[in-house]
Request: fold
Amino acid sequence: MNDNPYFHKLSNHLIDEETRSILVSQALAKSDEFFAYKGQRTGNEDGNYIFVRGFLREVEGVQRLMRACTVECYPLIMKQHSNLKGPIHVDNPNGRNCVIITPLIPEKDFVSTNFYTSFEDTVPVTSVDYSDGLPALINTQRLHNLNNNDNLRMNFQLCFENSFEEIRNLLLENKLFVF
Ligand SMILES: [Fe+2]
Reply:
């Protein structure tokens, strides 16, 4: 499991239930402040909409997490519209060589992040299961996409300049967050 080059599930929550519900209600209220993210290496849109400013850094649970983090990171909220069929892509690193995704909504049936070995693949090589609600560290430098269901999908992300392997090792050593 620890040599999975695509993702690494965390064994604990990073934000509490109160923080989660504040993020959801604020993000829904600021729906028009999200913008289409040109997140692909090609500079094309990747089907994601992001929110990076405003209330986000003022939420106490987010501040606590940022203070606890031992490497540089930044927070954002990302959403995907219902029934999005996201293109297979690699992220333009842009400070996000890897990200920790915390599912926000929907609480049930939050669809997987899928990983592929080539653009021509029709079946993922592996997928992240979020059904336990726990966060996952995602390697954005591997080919990935998602195929959303009928729900608006929204997640909270911590984004890292460090490589996936570096952040995974810090997580495994319990050194990424010091609360
Ligand atoms: Fe991506």
Summary: The chain is about 15% helix and 25% strand. The pocket of fe (ii) ion is lined by residues 39, 46, 89, 91, 140, 144 (CB under 6 Å).
